[in-house]
Amino acid sequence: MRQVIQYLLLVAALALALALARCEGETIRNKDIIGTWVNESGAEIHFKENGRFSYRNLPTAIFHSDGVKVHVLISGDGDTWNLRLEDTGPSIYLEFYWIDEIKRRLPEILYVDGKTLYFTYVPDVKGAYAGRFYFEKKPEK
């Protein structure tokens, strides 16, 4: 009987820990994303309240597409973003309407990791993404 009680307490503790971790991951909201996010290289993404975003000096290497020139920086305006809360964690779905440098429109995912956002890039030989391109929120003036 004592072992059953210990087992039930362990299960309850694990369930509580998972529930708290899940709640923590889902606390991010659109208002937390709105603003300018910068990378140490000088790249920027500016998220607007109306679901649009603009970007400056993004490397084309972040796009998961064949034939992308990897040493090109791009800038643009007017594209849309959408925060998604999924089982794997929150992410931001970006819709790039048209990118001249790669001659196509592309959706891309910007992952949320605590107080940073990141793109994955450069697939390795096994198909996993070997790099991350991080952004931190720029303090408001």
Give the ordered list of helices and strands: HHEEEEEEEE
Radius of gyration from CA coordinates: 19 Å
Q: What's the number of structural domains?
A: 1
Number of helices: 2
State the helicity in percent bands.
10-25%
Q: At the first level of CATH, what is the class? A: Mainly Beta
The secondary-structure class comes to alpha+beta
Mean pLDDT level: 77
Terminal Cα span: 61 Å
Oligomer type: single chain
Strand content: over 45%
What would your notes on this structure say?
With 141 residues, this protein is α+β, with helices and mostly antiparallel strands. The chain has one domain (29-137): Lipocalin (Beta Barrel), CATH 2.40.128. The chain is built from 2 helices and 8 strands. An 8-stranded antiparallel β-barrel has the order 1-2-3-4-5-6-7-8. The chain is globular.
